[in-house]
Amino acid sequence: MCGIIGYIGNKQAMPILIKGLRRLEYRGYDSAGIAVCEKNPAGSEICRVRSIGKIDMLADKLAEVTLNGTVGIAHTRWATHGGVTEENAHPHVAQDGKLALVHNGIIENYRELKEHLPDVTFTSDTDSEVLAHLIAKHYQKDTGTDKDLRVAVEKALSHVRGTYGIVVMHKDHPDCLIAARMGSPIVIGIADDGHYIASDPTPILAYTKNMIFLDDGEVAEMHPDKMKIRDLKAHEITKCVEQIEWNDEQAEKQGFPHFMLKEIYDQPTVFQDAIRGRYNLHEGTSFLGGLNMTDDEMRSINRVILIACGTASHAAMIGKYAFERLAGIPTEVDVASEFRYRDPIIDGRTLVFGISQSGETADTIAALREAKRKGAFVRGVVNAVGSTIARETDGGSYMHAGPELSVASTKAYTNMIAILLLYALQFGRLKRVTTATGQRMLHALRDIPEKMKMILDQSEQIKQIAIKYKAYPNFFFLGRGINYPVAMEGSLKLKEITYIHSEAYPGGEMKHGPIALLSDQFPIFAIMTRDQLYDKMRSNIEEARARNAKVILVATQGDEQARELADDIMYVPDTMELLEPLLNTIPLQLFAYHTAVALGRDVDRPRNLAKSVTVE
Ligand code: F6R
Questions:
Q1: Known NCBIfam families for this protein (predicted)?
Q2: Per residue in 483-528, pLDDT tens?
Q3: Contact between residue 165 and residue 185 where contact means Cβ atoms under 8 Å apart
Q4: Distance, CA of 422 to CA of 428 (rounded, Å)
Q5: Does residue 321 share a domain with residue 418?
Q6: Are residues 428 and 556 in the same domain?
């Protein structure tokens, strides 16, 4: 969603803030702004520059001014309340520009709060501006000579309903920044040259790996060389400093034209990171220590629920196949936004996994809290270290995909599948999977990175196919069995970055209605690899061909019959059926990517979207 970056220290703030905004642009990119506290002989002053559009537009504006100061805050926005205008861009100011605030989240009772600020003339339509004025009001109410900005922030927040991650600065406190969190992440980087504050670790990595993650209800008071964190009752608390292993270089494009392409190509490497040290070939089993369950607890599980959104929910659907097939445990997949409202059946023998790249998806967090309330074992499969889901679940595994900065998720998806397969095997070995079957699966998993590379080598050929089809306005993606979620993922990738309409169907379902849409203008993209449903899928494709639809196929290397059926074909190496999605999705990712490039789309930052959806 929106991105926050702040700095207080002994360096100039502006370059840090701009670089940070560029790193955070993936979180939201409809407008941006920056405010720096300038110290002048006559006193301090807050200078603010804002712009609609991408960070480049803000940078152009900043090229015309000089902002001198070692304290500052900045924000990149994804509109929720109020349209995309400069007035609605953060930072918002109050008290005639003396106080500035950046905010992520939603103030649900902002209308109510507004009524308590009758003397204020609001300049934006946002809920965030209301919060700035509310803090200013409490600050002004403080009649002491030594007005306390932190206390004003705390008092204001006690009236707020909703979610926030905020950073506040005041011209009368030029050596202080106040940050607070309720539902929207705030990370503080601790370095020799000051404190860095952000909504996720990526913009801080260039300066320090030592980070503190605020929990809900915590308020940080930061100065260049010291910091105090307090809870809601203003009690000082000691937080543990975490070492973030990601490095700054991983957050660069490294010569690729887009983050998405780099992240597609990262897959063989990060897949190895996901499985490394997590299995025992000799015993044919996996062991993810973070699961935090005894063998008896694991044996007691009689239902697994996988909760996720979007791409993560497609990975979850593949996880369902693995859990049912390997462990024989009935497994459901729930889209997080539906789960909590459907009164799910949960008891102490239910194991719930929340699957999330960002670990900050509001719907997934809310669903996991609901599952916890109902007494389930709740675990996370998460990429972002220190994120809310990682901290709120009672165990789980990091997927080690490294920073994923393209809005469209790719490498996190394959690593989610990797972790779910390992978990399914771990449960399976306690139940019905033999050592030999476990060993076979682990051998096949170890071969996956090399096979992924073989598909990536076909990128140029896939590009030509993408160029050939780029003008078609509609696509069907078809798959069956474990390849149905793959079709769904291919369809999602295509629509989100190319804006071409596409739908995914299980191959066998086409004839129950959707086939009516087929014509020579409506191509189908089908996954027909050599698994148990090969012949069924083949018949479904014949049905589509009979309606003159063009056919693009993903087929198993060496399948010459498939070539006869297809207008265009992409071959993938053979693997165990359960592992097929790890390979079969890659041509679909590349197809979406090359189509988007051919259409001149903004691949990494598609319209209307934002990475990390922190609102419900
Ligand atoms: C699609 C995409 C989204 C996310 C979804 C969940 O490419 O990126 O569908 O998968 O918003 O996000 P996380 O995994 O961060 O919970």
A1: glmS, PRK00331.1
A2: 999 999 999 999 999 999 999 999 999 889 999 999 999 999 999 9
A3: yes
A4: 10
A5: yes
A6: no
